[in-house]
Amino acid sequence: MKSYQALRTPVQKGRAGWNAILDDLPPPRHLEGNETADFVVVGAGFAGLAAARRLMQLAPGARVAILEAGRVAEGAAGRNSGFMIDLPHNLPGSEEMAARGERELISLNRQAQDFAEAAVEEYGIDPNFFDRAGKIDGAGNSSGHAANKRERAHLDSIGEPSEMLDAKQMTEVTGSEYYRSGLYTPGTVMLQPAGFIRGIAAGLVRAGVRVFEESPATGFTRQGDGWTVSTPKAAVQAGKVILAVNGHLESFGVARGRLMHLFLFGAMTPELSPDQLRQAKGQDRWGITPADHMGATVRRINQGQGGNRILIRATAALRSGMVPRMSDLARAAQGMQTRFDARFPSLAGMSFEHVWAGHACLSRNGVAVMREIDDGVFSACVQNGLGAARGTLTGIGAAELACREDSAITRRFTAEDEPARLPPQPVREIGMNAVLRWREWMARKA
User: What number is the average pLDDT over the span 123-138?
Assistant: First the structure.
């Protein structure tokens, strides 16, 4: 009898700020008695919810159940910085192959955005939670400025629109004199990730999907032609299982020793007072990703997304045990305070209301794990730090594989290699964290 047992279930550190600034969630529905379903989806993040929605499209009337270890939008999706990006971060291979592969990825990422936007319209989600506003790559120093110029030239070469912003224009947008330049690209969707995830989950429930919260999957076992997925209190019997658990795929024994478990840290201010708003200046809603990827991500939001606040995300830690340390959170909070104060000296010293850790999973060779990993078991995992777009794509793809549907998404991801093996412990953790610290120091002014 084939069986997969979870070594651990998700552990969250710090309240997810995006979720905390919204209205309270309704009481959770727990899995307290045995159930049956045609499909069980494990995980209610970007991938899991996309998978459930695609299943409802491909198999109308199918019985779909979702098991979520915690509360909806309190997990990794609600700890995301909220950029659903169309342009890929890294390019594969030679120039010719890179351009071809890049155009394919851009097309797929935009397909994910369109899929998400259709769900927003179908489920009546607040449009403030899904804003096609674009983003800016911000440069605080000469190396970042040079990176922006190189990226602008590259985008020109593949026919993608962008606009260079000088220091004065960056101040007009952000209210901050910190940035030397910015590169605006119009294709990114700015999410209120917790509001978006909550809205998708609520829409699926109305459509007949059963969503069980605080019901972690502790394992699944082959039973005849299907699988029994166990939780601490009960189980669901189903014909097919979709694992949308990102890095916790390794908890179930899949891709063991091949996945890098990074914790990325975010912080959010209290709601700004009228006087603080005057000091902050700038526009009331924008998003900046760093020209140097190890720099600080910064967002300004307004009342439509949960209040007039500033969010900053910086620093990372590799924790192969999938649990961040409180010392990681304390170090990150200090680093984010320093970066916040540098960008907003008129607000320097303002204490953050929420500080949190979010689990991201990467493979050494940048591949996802979106395929059938056992008979009737499908994975939508390993998002490589691009949870909103990549999670949506792998969720769609896993649902299509489960329904034996061929598509550009399934062809793209099933053609990828296995995740590359990582160095053994303790070399992996010590070495990677040393590299992260060095790169963060080098990007401290980016």
Answer: 98
Host H or E run for residue 182: strand 181-185
SS (H, E, C) 38-80: EEEEECCCHHHHHHHHHHHHHCCCCCEEEECCCCCCCCHHHHC
Question: CA 44 to CA 197: how far, in whole Å?
Answer: 8
- Dihedral pair phi/psi, residue 325, rounded to 5°: -95, 155
Phi, psi of 403 (to 5 degrees): -100, 10
Residue 82: partners with Cβ closer than 8 Å, 6 or more residues away: 18, 190, 191, 192, 193, 287, 299, 388
pLDDT of residue 91 exceeding 70, the answer is no
Look at residues 213, 248, 212 and name the one whose alpha carbon lies nearest to residue 4: 248
| Residues 164 and 147: beta-carbon distance below 8 Å | no
Q: Tokens 């590799």 label which residue?
A: 318
Mean pLDDT value across residues 86-114: 74
Give the pLDDT score at 446: 75
pLDDT band at 97 (very low <50, low <70, confident <90, very high): very low
Residue 443 or 199, more confident: 199
- Residue 113: count other Cβ atoms within 10 Å of its Cβ: 21
Alpha carbons 39 and 41: distance in angstroms, whole number: 6
Which tens digit of pLDDT belongs to each residue from 176-190? 999 999 999 999 999
Measured CA to CA, the distance from residue 373 to residue 242 in angstroms comes to: 10
Answer yes or no: is pLDDT of 99 > 90. Answer: no
- Over residues 7-31, the pLDDT tens digits come to 999 999 999 999 999 999 999 999 9
Contacts of 380 (CB under 8 A, 6+ apart): 47, 48, 50, 51, 242, 243, 244, 370, 391, 394, 395, 397, 398
What average pLDDT does this structure show over 433-444? 90
Nearest to 219 by CA among 201, 207, 231: 231
Average pLDDT over residues 137-147: 94
Distances from the Cα of 277 to the Cα of 171, 175, 310, angstroms: 15, 10, 11
Buried b (16+ CB within 10 A) or exposed e, 394-428: bbbbbbbbbbebeeebbebbeebeebeebeeeeee
Token readout for 108 is: 């797929």
Helix (H) or strand (E) holding 190: strand 189-191
Percent helix / strand / coil, the chain, rounded to 5: 40, 25, 40
Closest-CA residue to 49 (of 431, 439, 388, 405)? 388
